User: What shape does this take?
Amino acid sequence: MRPVRLGGREHLLALERFTEGCADRRADRHCSGLGRLYFGGNPQNTRDGRCGFFLLVPFAAGVAITAVSRSVERISAAALLATIGSLAILIAMKMETPVCAVMAFPFLFVGLLAGVGLGIALGYLFSKLKSRFGGNDTTFTSIVLLAMPLLIFVGHRFEVSNPIQARRQIVISTIRIPAEPSLVWAELESFDSLAGDKPFLMHIGLPIPMRCVLEGTGRGAKRTCYFDQGYIQETVVEWLPPNMMLLSIDRTNMPGRHWLGFENAKYDLRREGNETVLTRSTTIVSYLYPAWYWGPLERWGVQSEHEYIFSDIARRALPPASEH
Assistant: This one.
């Protein structure tokens, strides 16, 4: 098939029809295309999680939508379809997990609303200028559609030229298990399956640990933990049974991890009376900003993983019920 070449005006009219088509609820294929444009390419090309990806791109999409449609119903439909379609594409291409998409939704929605608001204001201003100086709607639409990609490009180049520092956060969880430390330690080393109580986030896409395999013992041993959506490879750095195990996380092969990484994991066990106090510490590295928004969500996700593993360890470490 020969490529179709469009001139300047034909290109703008084609782009205008494309965006108008997405505002029509019946044109699903156009909305899928806008979803790809909405995220400005592959987010794995950068680890920077500032406004360029989560705010600037949806902001530009919101302005573009209002530039080609004056109907409130069509604007609302296009904004909703663009948001849902973009998140669906990220999940389908394994760039993000469903839970990460849900967490990012408020940022995307706010960006879209701000863009729609500015687009409506610009449309009102242009109508006033048009009534005074003349002109037509095509001129306004052309200016907006040309300016939005430039805005995204400039914003992206600014963020790339001003890299951010990764945030480190240590997430700590503790549980008391009525069992000997040696029994709890044995259950930590490796396990063929997990059957704990799933926290809420695991019901909406948070990766679920399935099993962990330890190759060797002591310092230098390799441990691989498998999830329903990937795996994590670890190396034992410190080995003091049955009191402490420190693991460096060498490789993470899971969806959405270009924003968030894991540095190390540590298990501390100490005896208190007839119980073992088990503490799990996980150091994470995040490129997502602002920290006031993403930090608590990241901590919630990691603590949910801890809780799931803890509930399974507690179940397996408990002695079998005595028969009567």
User: Anything to note?
Assistant: Residues 167-317 form a domain with the Alpha-D-Glucose-1,6-Bisphosphate; Chain A, domain 4 fold (CATH 3.30.530.20). The first strand starts at residue 167 and ends at 177.
